[in-house]
Amino acid sequence: MSSIAGVILREKLPPFERMLWRACSGNVFLKQAEIELPLEDPLTGEKVYKIVFIIFFQGDQLKSRASKICEGFHATVYPCPESAADRRTMLIDVIQKIEDLETVLTQTQQHRQRILEAAARNLNSWFIRVRKMKAIYHTLNFFDLDVTTKCMIGECWCALSDLDQVNLALCRGMQRSGSTIQPILNAMPTRDQPPTFHRTNKFTVAFQKIVDAYGVAKYREVNPALFTIITFPFLFAVMFGDAGHGLIMFLFALWMVLWEERLISMKIKDELWDTFFGGRYVILLMGAFSIYTGIIYNDVFSKSVNLFGSSWYPDYDKRALVAKDLLQLEPRTSENITEPMFAGQPYPFGVDPVWQISSNKIPFTNSLKMKTSIILAVFHMVFGVSLSFCNDKFFNNSLSIWCEALPQLLFLTSIFGYLVVVIFYKWAAYTADEASTAPSLLLSRCKMCMVTMPSFTSSAHQHVPVQLRCKRRIWGLVLQWTGKNCVIQICFPIF
């Protein structure tokens, strides 16, 4: 009686058993037992479940067939002695080898752990050294060797105020390296335009990145980031206009500002967090201005707050409220209203809270915010064009002044500046009694472009013909000058 012992994957046992039974015509006896603990596959490293088996048979022919089937199913075959004493001796040897291997593995893991712990203590310093060496060699790649190949020559741009610091840094490097050759730093005359350099700090760096995302100013041009520190968060607040949410933004940014040193030391590696933390001062100003504009709009979490008491005090009784679905507050007395409902003085700061319960709250607030946004936007654009004019004036660029900056300023003030004048005129010239006869800004804008006569239902305003002539003169001047200068600017060669 002969036997073959080995192990095979658990999922391969049923087909293995069928193949063995059919190939050997049922003349073999198969005994198997499952290994409870999973074993690690040496090829893939995954945990797999295996089954140990032993095959009993007679004759060399059955042994050959069983061996080929085991080889075909990738079963691992182990030698199994015939006598019990030999099997016991082999078991003792296997147990001894397992103990020796476990001892070797344990010592190897402990040795590896000691090496990793020793390396972990120096990992940060190694990382810093490698990055410094990489940066140094990357910079040295831009240097050139002189004819003697004993010194290196490099050309770079440097701020004039930093020349002394650069020279001191070179001297310190010479002393630390043990060299006796004094470094030479000379300012070279050149006709090349220097690159733009804006000195920033932790407060201004975020605003500078916002400006650089749209375009970098040329050398010695006005840096708009200085003005963006105020204009960007303020214009955001004009759009946002909620004191409640602005307070949340302000407190969140204030927490990041006060705890910035601790937060920096934590070294949080997250893209979203880096965006918030890098713009903490921007968010701080955005929240502060949002609180200011929210108080002006009287908007706190989309609700009005009655801080100073409303200037309106309606004196309607219950009968009047039941009789009419819509009641209008009158600022003056009439036949039906003997006492005024208006205190005579407006709300001390911002929008009166009575608009919160008004049915025309949305049209009123939208009109207020729209006109305010137009006025601020026009002033913002005029200021931007004025900076462009200052740049051209500084560089003595007469062509850009007469053919670009001034036409832009003329076109902007004639079209949009005129719209701002009309807004202020509408606020000042038309009272509450003439609200129905006040011109529409949208229609006036369209008719201005078409140079047509606006229609008014009131005969009290006799300025319409003068306004029409003014519009025609503005359009004629704008089209004539801007068209001519555009042709000049296009035909002028650019170098």
From TrEMBL:
The keyword Transmembrane applies. It is found in: Membrane. One of its GO terms (biological process) is vacuolar acidification. The chain crosses the membrane at residues 225-258, 278-297, 372-389, 409-428. It comes from Mesocestoides corti (Flatworm). Keywords: Hydrogen ion transport, Ion transport, Membrane, Transmembrane, Transmembrane helix, Transport. It is a multi-pass membrane protein. Its main location: membrane. Belongs to the V-ATPase 116 kDa subunit family. Signal peptide: none annotated. This is V-type proton ATPase subunit a. GO terms for molecular function: ATPase binding; proton-transporting ATPase activity, rotational mechanism. Essential component of the vacuolar proton pump (V-ATPase), a multimeric enzyme that catalyzes the translocation of protons across the membranes. Required for assembly and activity of the V-ATPase. GO terms for cellular component: plasma membrane; proton-transporting V-type ATPase, V0 domain; vacuolar proton-transporting V-type ATPase complex.
